[in-house]
TrEMBL record:
InterPro entries: Glyco_trans_2-like, Nucleotide-diphossugar_trans. Residues 27-194 form the Glycosyltransferase 2-like domain. Keywords: Glycosyltransferase, Membrane, Transferase, Transmembrane, Transmembrane helix. Pfam families: Glycos_transf_2. It comes from the Bacteria. Coiled coil: none annotated. It comes from Echinicola pacifica. Belongs to the glycosyltransferase 2 family. One of its GO terms (molecular function) is glycosyltransferase activity. The chain crosses the membrane at residues 267-286, 293-312, 324-348. The lineage of its organism: Bacteria, Pseudomonadati, Bacteroidota, Cytophagia, Cytophagales. This is Glycosyl transferase family 2.
Length: 355
């Protein structure tokens, strides 16, 4: 764990405010379905980004909550805003991939930033920081971090822990020159590369995966960079009910079936070692009667918990700034449980509902 995930904990990114040499135009793309309320909040924040040339392109995907009217009013106030309206989705494609593809085709600029309607940028420098590796380092992909607002309750704590853990995984592997996923809440890539690769080819029938599967198929050690700076993250409001969260994670795990073999092996090795550690520890504690051995096993478990707590705290501080990561051993067991339950259901399910 320390060898792989410690890569992020001890990583030092140059986050100095050096002047940008290359200020290419940027298209911010949002696929939105029934997101009128969220767009009323998001668009004014995006319009205030500290960047010279950018557009905000909202793909209104078959909305019936007044999104069209809200966007019409917002376009009067914010000249950076453009919209594309979808009234029909072909039967052989999944809605979000279709919406994103239409938006990408009509985007004005080659540097694309993707986010969701319920995601808010942490600062006015979000676009500048997220796109810097693409504009200034010649990268194709820039992987960002999408956080969730802290609220009271167990579900919120679990969601935030799982979000941290997922980010630590994909950032660490990317830093080891083996990128395997990104998140659509905070992701940037080149438009021309997307078009040249026909990026969703072979993925149209899969409900999710417009973000992680695209990165998984096309990101490489040479064309991908990570952006680790609390000023470059987005914040979303997490699910309030476990059933909603369950369906969301099930959809994500279902997309995981289509990862490349190398990514499946990486995830599988950790998942199996995680299960093996706890299963072995519990079996030994329950069956060994010598108190010295029980004490030794307990010390090993606690040492792992301390190591994990230290690694997590340093990594999370890189992602979100000062945060307290508490109860890591408890949530580690919770993560183990729901990974195998939800993961197995998502991996084996043929269909998962979309909103």
């Amino acid at each position: 764990m320390l060898v792989v995930f410690g890569k992020l904990s001890y990583f030092r990114q140059n986050n100095t405010d050096q002047p940008d040499q290359q200020l290419e135009g940027v298209s911010i793309i949002i696929a939105a379905r029934n997101e009128a309320r969220n767009l009323e909040v998001l668009i004014p924040l995006l319009a205030q980004q500290n960047y010279e040339a950018f557009e905000i392109l909202v793909i209104n995907d078959r909305s019936f909550d007044g999104t069209r009217e809200v966007l019409a009013q917002l376009m009067i106030q914010y000249p950076q805003l453009r919209t594309v309206t979808i009234d029909y989705t072909p039967a052989h494609v999944t809605p979000k991939k279709y919406a994103l593809t239409l938006g990408i085709k009509v985007a004005k600029y080659d540097v694309l930033v993707l986010t969701d309607a319920d995601c808010l940028p942490a600062t006015q420098d979000w676009v500048k920081l997220l796109t810097r590796p693409i504009r200034m380092q010649g990268k194709v992909f820039a992987l960002g971090y999408g956080a969730y607002h802290k609220e009271k309750g167990f579900i919120n704590a679990l969601i935030r822990y799982e979000t941290w853990f997922t980010a630590i995984q994909y950032f660490s592997f990317a830093l080891w020159k083996a990128p395997f996923m990104g998140i659509g809440r905070n992701l940037a890539y080149r438009r021309q590369y997307f078009m040249d690769q026909k990026a969703f080819k072979g993925l149209w029938h899969i409900l999710g995966g417009d973000d992680d599967l695209y990165v998984n198929r096309h990101a490489s050690r040479k064309n991908t960079a990570v952006v680790i700076d609390p000023r470059s993250i987005t914040y979303s409001t997490p699910k309030k009910k476990f059933n909603d969260y369950f369906l969301q994670k099930q959809r994500h795990y279902q997309a995981g079936r289509h990862y490349k073999a190398g990514a499946k092996i990486k995830i599988g090795i950790y998942a199996l070692s995680h299960l093996f550690f706890w299963a072995t520890a519990l079996v030994l504690i329950c069956n060994i009667k010598a108190w010295e051995l029980i004490l030794l096993i307990t010390v090993i478990i606690l040492a792992r918990a301390v190591l994990q707590w230290s690694t997590f705290n340093q990594a999370v501080e890189k992602l979100e700034g000062k945060q307290k990561v508490m109860w890591t051993m408890f949530f580690d067991l919770m993560y183990l449980s729901y990974f195998w339950v939800i993961g197995a259901k998502g991996y084996l399910s043929k269909t998962v509902r979309w909103k």
